[in-house]
What we know:
Blueprint: E1 5-6, H1 8-15, H2 19-27, E2 34-37, E3 41-46, H3 49-57, H4 69-73
Antiparallel strand pairs: 1-3, 2-3
Helix pairs in contact: 1-2
Amino acid sequence: MTKPLETPKELAERLGLPVTNIRYLIREDMLDHIYTAPGQRNPKIPSGAWEKYVSQFTVKALKPEPRRASQEMGPDK
């Protein structure tokens, strides 16, 4: 059973990332989170937030253009 909320440290340990990276994503509002204390302290990350972040910010690779014969030989020919 997964926990409904994780601390930044718990998420960082689960993913193998530095906790500073997770806190940066929270500070920049790139990762879904909630505050459980007044004054925007003690953020918690809901389950599924990391997966949403990854799908939202994944850069899709472009298909390479086919090379022409003259490009494959290079400038020396």
